[in-house]
Specification:
The structure is a single chain. This protein is α+β, with helices and mostly antiparallel strands and 353 residues long. The protein folds into two domains: 172 residues, Ribosomal Protein S5, domain 2 (2-Layer Sandwich), CATH 3.30.230; 162 residues, 2-Layer Sandwich (Alpha-Beta Plaits), CATH 3.30.70.890. 38% of the residues lie in helices and 24% in strands. It contains nine helices and twelve strands. Strands 1, 2, 3, 4, 5, 6, 7 and 12 form an eight-stranded mixed beta sheet that branches. A four-stranded antiparallel beta sheet has the order 9-10-8-11. β9 and β10 form a beta hairpin. α2 packs across α3. It is globular and about 60 Å long. The model has no long low-confidence stretch (mean pLDDT 96). The structure holds alpha-D-galactopyranose. Alpha-D-galactopyranose binds next to α4.
């Protein structure tokens, strides 16, 4: 019997950069998926969830085509099993019980947390050694395979490498990480707009393709090395290049303790995601404005956009008050009920002992 936990994440700044080899600053949060697994001798993987109906039953050898697995939530398990089989995992079956405190459809990476936890559990039970980067890349590949969504690697890296009280400066080209301390004087507030996010339905893949086309036109593999002048006339590419710069500026400002500047960079990130990259919604805009007006240093949509959550940087002492006032204003302007979550940065995924 073993238990694996994998946290969700919130991205503090740096969205829609990861799939262009760019920079981002996520943190793992104190909402997590736990998979409890026990070996079986019949070569089957049988999974149950406390939140999703249906029992998943799959051969452990990875022979099920992920896109055809039913119930649907078994698709990423099938993709993990297939990916690990290709890495030489012995086809050892197991029972898995899944519990989760990561809100679904919020942009807090519930599915990345799930896939990371399943990857670690499936590897561990079969004695397959994987380092953290291999877990993240494997989980990313499984998610792409299972959903058809060409996600980047930020969510999985954050879930694997999170560190308590730190955000992670992640270079998505080298996969180098640097843990950046979050001062005790600030709180990270996450507020859900009350509008669910459906990534598959969104323009995520279109945006990614537009970035790839822009890079190809510059003769570059990705937009990582493009200069702001080179992309001045292309709003999608301009967002990616300017956002990479904001991530570095934010880290400098955080290190210098200049929280006002951090906030302004978050606001600028939101404006760029709204106006240049066009992944915001009126609800996300309203909630960002409400948080800033209520006294947050800054706020922005977080994750892919198109619904889900905003993230705000707030003075630790005033967080409850600011979030309550922002929520009341948001409710009165939109008629929607916001869901606040104050999150803490936690360590990344691993075995629970
Ligand atoms: C989703 C994807 C990530 C990343 C963000 C946007 O969360 O899974 O890889 O692209 O959107 O920054």
């Amino acid at each position: 019997m073993l238990a694996v936990r994998a946290p969700g994440r919130v991205n503090v700044i740096g969205d829609h950069t990861d799939y262009q080899d760019g920079l981002c600053l996520p943190m793992a949060i104190d909402r997590e998926v736990v998979v409890r697994a026990r070996g079986r001798i019949d070569g089957l993987v049988v999974a149950r969830s406390d939140a999703i109906a249906g029992v998943v039953e799959l051969p452990a050898d990875g022979s099920t085509e992920p896109a055809s697995a039913e119930p649907r939530w078994g698709r990423s398990i099938a993709a993990v099993l297939r990916g690990l089989a290709e890495r030489g995992r012995a086809p050892i079956g197991f029972d898995a019980e899944v519990t989760s405190t990561v809100p679904v459809g919020s942009g807090l990476s519930s599915s990345a947390a799930f896939t990371v936890a399943v990857t670690i559990a499936a590897a561990e039970i079969a004695g397959l050694e994987l380092d953290g980067r291999a877990v993240a890349l494997q989980a990313q590949a499984a998610e792409q395979h299972a959903t058809g969504l060409p996600c980047g690697v930020m969510d999985q890296m954050a879930s694997v490498f999170g560190r308590a009280d730190h955000a992670l400066l992640l270079d998505c080209r080298s996969l180098d990480l640097e843990a950046i301390p979050l001062p005790a004087s600030v709180a990270v507030a996450v507020v859900h707009t009350g509008v669910a996010r459906r990534l598959e339905d969104s323009a995520y893949a279109e945006r990614r393709a537009a970035c790839e086309a822009a890079a190809a036109q510059l003769g570059a593999p990705t937009l990582r090395d493009a200069t702001i002048d080179e992309v001045a006339g292309d709003p999608f590419a301009r967002h990616v290049v300017s956002e990479n710069g904001r991530v570095l500026d934010f880290v400098d400002a955080l290190r210098a303790g200049d929280l006002d500047r951090c906030g302004r960079l978050m606001n600028a990130s939101h404006a760029s995601l709204r106006d240049d990259f066009r992944v915001s919604t009126p609800e996300l805009d309203a909630l960002v404005d409400a948080l800033v007006d209520a006294g947050a240093y800054g706020a922005r949509l977080t994750g892919a956009g198109f619904g889900g959550c905003v993230v705000g940087l707030v003075a630790a002492g005033g967080v409850d008050d600011i979030v309550a006032r922002a929520g009341a204003r948001y409710r009165s302007t939109t008629g929607l009920t916001p869901v606040p979550l104050v999150v803490r940065a936690v360590d990344g995924a691993g075995l629970v002992t």
